[in-house]
Design brief:
Blueprint (H helix, E strand, L loop, with lengths): L1 H5 L3 E3 L12 H7 L6 H4 L6 E7 L5 E3 L19 H4 L9 E7 L1 E3 L3 E9 L2 H14 L4 E6 H7 L5 H14 L3 H14 L2 H4 L3 E9 L2 H15 L4 E3 L2 H8 L14 E4 L2 E4 L3 H22 L2 E9 L3 E10 L5 H6 L2 H6 L7 H20 L19 H14 L13
Antiparallel strand pairs: 1-5, 2-3, 2-4, 6-8, 6-9, 7-8, 7-12, 10-13, 11-13, 12-13
Helix pairs in contact: 5-10, 7-8, 7-11, 8-11, 12-15
Length: 403
């Protein structure tokens, strides 16, 4: 979709998740996703102006203004927001046949800042302050461990591929070459020493406006950390939809979960979450399980906190089918490891429970996150009536959303 729109000089206001190489448009609106544009617009839901829905009874339901003949769905909040009802619904309320998306002029320039931080508190303060400016299209943070995991292979060949990718994705050859050389020279060193790094990306119609935005971002975050080469920004934007990272470079399996917290709840959640990790440290060491963290800003007041577990285990059929063949050929293979899998599952449930206690929201609700737990009875009853009205036989994603 992004490639097709580029030919017309436009893009959607939310233009895809990191998994966009595999994710579908309908799946992203059903499950909810975040990354590109999320610093300003939040999640997929904000880009939808209207849907055509196939109900469980086989009827077509149009939401938004084109529910009236001859009316174009250019304006979403005309009356009750029926379009919003079908965003992030886990596909439980109907099948999305079409979506009308809000577009914007495609920026001609992008850039940003990368910063290193001594601790989480400083990184979080920088991401919070940057989000409040409303300038950054993407705000992405990570701890040092996951930065090293994702940095990839060493060597001249890898550096050359990295350089070509960044140059081809830049809005100018000179800018791309400059950013690409910084990436190669910086290598892994920008990620090995600091405890946390964060990247603040901005778009603009011109280099002049871009420089002004970057100056504003620098003013907001510079008090919290140390500016480093912006190598990661070039990689993120020059190759926005990479292969899904189903394992790390050592072939370990991974399991990410997430919670979206208000800025006011982040520090209290982190304290409880890390206290729990301390109680599990011995079992993690016994089973060689590690957990690392990534972060993202969603709009001005949402902070996405994503723990990711890694452990050595046999690969499933899913990995064999989806992972790139050239990666599978080089990955180490490990024997079945039920003890590690069981520990990861136990920890996943416990951390989701901690997130719930701190008021977290979630994307990709499915059957994992506690959407209906303790939810207001009147609200739940209304949602069940909507489900029954649209899908009386409960044939569309049964038990999705917990319904």
């Amino acid at each position: 979709l992004d490639e097709a729109l580029a030919a017309h000089g436009v893009r959607t206001t939310f233009w895809g998740p990191f998994s966009g190489g595999r994710a579908t448009v309908g799946g992203s609106f059903s499950q909810g996703s975040a990354t590109f544009g999320s610093g300003q617009t939040g999640t997929t839901a904000a880009a939808a102006l209207g849907f055509t829905i196939v109900t469980g009874d086989g009827e077509l339901l149009r939401t938004g203004m084109d529910a009236q003949p001859g009316h174009a769905p250019f304006f979403r909040p005309y009356g009750p927001d029926i379009t919003g009802l079908f965003t992030h619904d886990a596909g439980a309320l109907g099948i999305k046949a079409t979506v009308t998306l809000e577009l914007e002029e495609r920026p001609s320039a992008y850039g940003g800042l990368s910063f290193a931080f001594a601790d989480f508190d400083a990184m979080f303060a920088a991401m919070r302050d940057a989000a409040r400016t409303g300038i950054a299209s993407e705000l992405i943070g990570m701890d040092a461990a996951i930065a090293g995991i994702q940095a990839g292979e060493r060597g001249l060949r890898a550096d050359f591929r990295k350089l070509l990718t960044i140059i081809s994705g830049a809005h100018s050859v000179v800018g791309g070459l400059r950013r690409g050389m910084r990436a190669v020279v910086a290598g892994r060193s920008a990620f090995e020493d600091p405890a946390f790094t964060a990247h603040f990306i901005a778009d603009a119609r011109s280099d002049r406006l871009l420089r002004a935005k970057i100056d504003e971002l620098r003013s907001a975050v510079s008090q919290h950390g140390q500016e480093i080469p912006d190598a990661a920004i070039g990689m993120i934007r020059s190759q926005p939809f990479p292969h899904l990272p189903l394992t790390d470079m050592q072939g370990r399996r991974m399991l990410p979960i997430h919670g979206i917290l208000p800025n006011s709840a982040v520090m209290a959640f982190r304290a409880d979450y890390h206290a729990y990790l301390e109680t599990m440290q011995a079992r993690m060491s016994e089973t060689d399980v590690i957990v690392v963290e990534t972060f993202a800003g969603l709009g001005r007041n949402g902070f996405l906190y994503e723990p990711v577990w890694y452990w050595k285990d046999r690969l499933e059929l899913f990995h064999e089918r989806v992972a790139p063949a050239e990666m599978l050929e080089t990955l180490p293979r490990y024997p079945d490891n039920p003890a590690a899998r069981e520990l990861v599952e136990t920890m996943k449930e416990a951390v989701i429970d901690i997130m719930y206690r701190h008021g977290a929201a979630h994307l990709q609700i499915g059957r994992v996150y506690p959407y209906l737990r303790d939810r207001d009875a009147t609200s739940t009853a209304l949602l069940r009536r909507v489900k029954t009205s649209l899908d009386d036989a409960a044939i569309i994603n049964p038990n999705g959303l917990g319904l």
